[in-house]
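In the previous lecture we treated proteins in isolation. Real proteins rarely work alone, and many bind small molecules. This record shows how such a complex is specified: first the sequence, then the SMILES for flavin-adenine dinucleotide.
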Amino acid sequence: MKPAPFKYLAPDTLAEALTAVQEHGYDAKLLAGGQSLIPVMNFRLAQPGVLIDINRIPGLDAIQGNGVSRGVLRLGAMARHRQLEHDPVVAALAPLIQQTMPFVAHPQIRNRGTLGGTLAHADPAAELPVVMTALQARFRLQKVGGERWVNADDFFIGLFATDLGVDEMIVEVEAPPLPPRTGCAFHEVARRHGDYALAGVAAVVTLDESGNCQSARLVYLNAGEGPVTAVKAAAMLTGETLTDDLIAEAAHVAANEEIAPESDIHATADFRRHLAKVLTQRALKEAGAKAAGKNQKAKR
Ligand SMILES: Cc1cc2nc3c(=O)[nH]c(=O)nc-3n(C[C@H](O)[C@H](O)[C@H](O)COP(=O)(O)OP(=O)(O)OC[C@H]3O[C@@H](n4cnc5c(N)ncnc54)[C@H](O)[C@@H]3O)c2cc1C
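The predicted 3D structure, ligand included, written as C-alpha cells:
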C-alpha cells in the first residue's frame, strides 16, 4: 500500500518545526525515523495532511553526560537507536539502555528509529518506554513560546497515548544518575530475535551498605496499556536481603497481581504472566548481583 497524499515540510530549525506543528495541529505528524509512522501511513491507519520531517534540525541527536550536572545523561530526541546502543557515555551512565538496545527490532531499523519517535509512539510492547520509566527519566516537551518537563511515570497515559500536546514535540530526555551500588537488567522473550517481545521486564536494584535492598524498580512491557510498574513487588524487596525465595515471591506477586497482559494470537495472558514471573526472577538476580559488584548474568 502507498500512503494517502500529504504535504511534506522539512524545516531546518527547531523554531520552524515548532511553528509548523502549531500551525497544522492535528492534521500534521512529525517524521523522525519513520519506522512506525510510515508503515501506519502505508496501511492508511494514519492519513496526516502534512508531514514535518525533523531529520534536518541540527543538534537534536546530541548525547551528553558528566557535564555541569554530573552523572545526568541527556539524550536528544533524534538520537538513533544505534547511537544509544553504541555510545560510550550511554554505556557508562545508563548501562540499562545499552543492554536493552539489541532487543529493539533489527539493526536496519535501529539505524533509523529514534528515541523521541519510540517514546511518542508509546507502543506498550516497546522497550525504551519501559527502560526510561525504570530509570525514572524525564522528558522535555517544547512548543512555540514554552517548554515543560514530564516524568516518564506521568507521560504514558494509555494505549499508544501520551501526555504530549498536539502543539508539542519531545526535544530531550534526561536520566538521573544511578545511586552507588545500583545494578540494572533487562530480560524479554520474543518468538524470533528482533520481534516485538511477548513479555519483558527492566529491573533496577540499589543495595544499602550492608547489602540489603535499599530500593527496587520493576517495569514491564506488553503487560498493560503502557509501561507497567510493579509497586507492590518492589516494596516487598525494600529493606530485605535478596534471597532466591524472596525474589520468587516478589516475582509471583508482580506477575499475578500487578500486570494485566492480554491474550492474542501470539500468546495467552496466562503464558505471558508465566514468562513475566520467570523473567522477573532472572532480572532481579542479575541486577542484584551487579549492584553487589558481581558483574554476572543470571543463570537461565
Ligand atoms: C519491523 C519492525 C520491527 C520493530 N520492532 C521493534 C521492537 O522490537 N521494539 C521496539 O521498541 N520498536 C520496534 N519497532 C519500532 C521502532 O523502534 C521505531 O523506531 C519506533 O517505534 C519509532 O521511532 P521512529 O523514530 O521511527 O518514529 P516515527 O515512526 O518517525 O514516528 C512515530 C510517532 O512519533 C511521533 N514523533 C516522532 N518524533 C517525535 C518527537 N520528537 N516528538 C513528538 N512526536 C514525535 C511521530 O509523529 C509519530 O506519530 C519496529 C519497527 C519495525 C518496522
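Summary for your notes: The longest helix spans residues 269-291. The longest strand covers residues 199-207.
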